Amino acid sequence: MRFTQAHIDELLDAWPLLRRQPTTKRDVCSVVGLLDFSMEPAGLPKIEDSYRIQIDVPLGRTTFAPPVYERGGRIPQGNDNHVNSDGTLCLGSPWTLRLKLGNPPNLVRYAEECIAPFLYAATWREQGNQGFPFSELSHGLVGLEEDYASILGLSGRRSAIEAIKLLRLRPRLANKRACPCGCGRRLGLCNYRVILNGLRSGLPRSFFSIVLEQINDGRALERPKLSPRRHRLANNHSKKLSRA
After folding, report:
1. Where are the alpha helices (DSSP H) in 64-106?
2. Is 107 helix (H, G, I), strand (E, B) or coil?
3. How far apart are the two ends of the chain, measured CA to CA in Å?
4. What are residue 2's phi and psi, to 5 degrees?
5. Residue 139, pLDDT score
6. What band does 124 get if pLDDT is binned at 50, 70 and 90?
7. pLDDT bracket for residue 77 (50, 70, 90)
8. Per-residue pLDDT tens for 159-193?
9. Dihedral over alpha carbons 208, 209, 215, 218 (to 10 degrees)
10. Cα(199)–Cα(98) distance, rounded to whole angstroms?
């Protein structure tokens, strides 16, 4: 995925209250200002509002969607408001955001389908409503794995992870592995290969390697920490098993 100044021009044409801001970050264009929206989702009230935001658009090739910040101080930081510890808005899983950005990427679509709905939900909560007006992912690793299972059309987190492992491989190699759908056949003999091939479109294999690393890192953070003594015992036990 590659962003250019032309992508930013399209965004600024759609939202004239946004502008480029000088930044010391190399190969990044910071877009700041007011993003206004008017939304009336089915079954929900119409809301018109605007938020002061910052979008850091990487110029050139990138793997993930541009990070977005709310700079007006209206949205408190924390998991309950889906604001990460670094201040970025949690707009969705990395894979979902890539799908919504499209190929080639479109920052106007990103603002309309990812940023504006997030801000709608923030105003909706300001008005005294509880929770989120749209479907809400669980926090952390569980939410990632649930979302990826939904994208992959699989039930179960384990199946989703196995499918992501296959997406890291060239189709010729992946087709020789067991299909993650649970049919008991090789992927190359199952119709599920068509779904995986469609999900590969526009995404490099390195993207799925990074997604898998994020899942593994999240699992490592969720594991209970061992005391130094128990850590030594676990290492010794592991060494004995490797020698057996």
Report:
1. 94-101
2. helix
3. 47
4. -135, 130
5. 67
6. very high
7. confident
8. 999 999 999 999 999 999 999 999 999 999 999 99
9. -140
10. 11
Question: 15: Cβ–Cβ under 8 A, 6 or more apart, which residues?
Answer: 33, 34, 35, 36, 111
Mean pLDDT rounded to a whole number for the chain: 86
Tokens representing residue 236 in the block = 């010794």
Peptide bond into 104 cis (omega under 30): yes
- The DSSP result for 159-208, as a single string, is HHHHHHHHHTS-HHHHTTSBPTTSSSSBGGGSTHHHHHHHHHTT--HHHH
Q: Name the residue type at position 129.
A: N
DSSP 83: B
Question: Closest Cα partner for 111 from 226, 18, 208, 176?
Answer: 18
| Under 8 Å between Cβ of 68 and 136 | no
Q: How far is CA 52 from CA 15, 16, 33, 75, in A?
A: 12, 13, 5, 11
Residue pair 114/102 in contact (Cβ under 8 Å)? The answer is no
Find out whether 49 and 123 touch, Cβ atoms under 8 Å: yes
pTM for the complete prediction? 0.79
| Residue 107 near residue 7 (C-beta atoms within 8 A) | yes
Backbone Cα Rg of the chain: 21
| Torsion-angle region of 193 (φ positive above 0: left; ψ -120 to 50: alpha; else: beta) | alpha
Provide the token pair at 30.
């910071």
